[in-house]
Design brief:
Layout lengths: L1 E4 L7 E9 L4 H10 L8 E11 L1 H16 L4 E4 L3 H9 L14
Length: about 100
């Protein structure tokens, strides 16, 4: 569900989310995320390109991740959002909380 990709040169560290982040998976995802702590210093990108499904419980976990990293002065952006997840973030009026990172080409 979570994979950690270390920073390389000018590319920030990435926390990549895969699969589903819904009420049924959020407890497992939270436990997996806690096992990664403490996270290396940022800046950070949340890569949502392989996230297939997101509901309100998953959105709450994303907000907690973003808030947690921001509270320790680790700038966080979102990169490569899957289309269905992007639609869900818009429906929940959350896209403004995640400034999009430029895509690497």
């Amino acid at each position: 569900m979570f994979s950690l990709i270390s920073a390389r040169g000018d590319i920030p560290a990435q926390l990549k989310l895969t699969g589903e982040l819904t009420l049924n998976e959020v407890d497992q995802a939270r436990a997996q995320l806690l096992a990664l702590l403490p996270l290396p210093t940022g800046p950070w990108q949340l890569d949502l390109s392989d996230l297939n499904e997101l509901d309100c419980a998953g959105a709450q976990l994303l907000l907690a991740i973003q808030r947690g990293l921001s509270s320790i002065d680790q700038p966080t952006t979102v990169s490569r959002v899957a289309p269905g997840v992007h639609e869900q973030l818009i429906l929940l009026n959350l896209e403004s909380l995640y400034p999009a990172a430029p895509d690497e080409d």
